[in-house]
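Box 3.1 A note on notation
Throughout this textbook, protein chains are presented in two layers. The first layer is the amino acid sequence; the second is a token string describing backbone geometry. Keep the layers aligned when reading.
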Amino acid sequence: MFAFWEDARRGRVHRVAYHEGTLAGRCIEAPIAAYRHTGGRRGDGVYIFIQHGSYQCVPIDEQPELEAGYVHLHRGIGEEKAFRFGRAFRTRTDPRLTSAWETYAQLQFDLLSRSDVSFNSIHDRTKRVETGHILDDSWMTDELAKERGLDIEHDPWTRALWEATHQSFALRRCVSEHKFGPHRVVCRTPLTNIRITTFFAGEHEVRVLDPARVELLAAIGCEVNHEG
């Protein structure tokens, strides 16, 4: 990391992705940047992800589609037999669901429009020894959702959406294999569909903005429950 910032000060970093973040119609995209860094201890290099004060270093070979605009997401489910991967979020034709989604998307866009709020909101469910100084475990997004009129407690579809977007994936395979495995899945989503926690929170953790834009690539040791 220190080597990367030294190269950045000298103008020698290779940027592979840069997005400002948008809300266009019903599509929400996050601001994020990614750089390729070949210095340091890993001879094969790493990608540096940066988003509103959070950054992560991920080996290049673990994100083979990054430069095409996609990231691979890993999630371990322990000894569970099924990974719940609902299709319900892909259907928003009902006016009530459309209204809930639009409120949700506007809330996320507003959160992402201020770097301080964005940083605190993505860590609001993080609670580890390393994160006690960054307003972790605040659950601040729940209060903001209620202020906007999102019924995240009683409406089944809205509650399911809220829970899905607060589930954690990892940008590194080893997290799902060794810490949360052995049963696991690999998914794929656009780079602009993720929010990252900062490196010291551990686990290379990310969340997704829109679960409908997550594609399942592989299920290892488990089945997939599309109705979950």
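Residues 2-225 form one domain. The first helix runs from residue 2 to 9.
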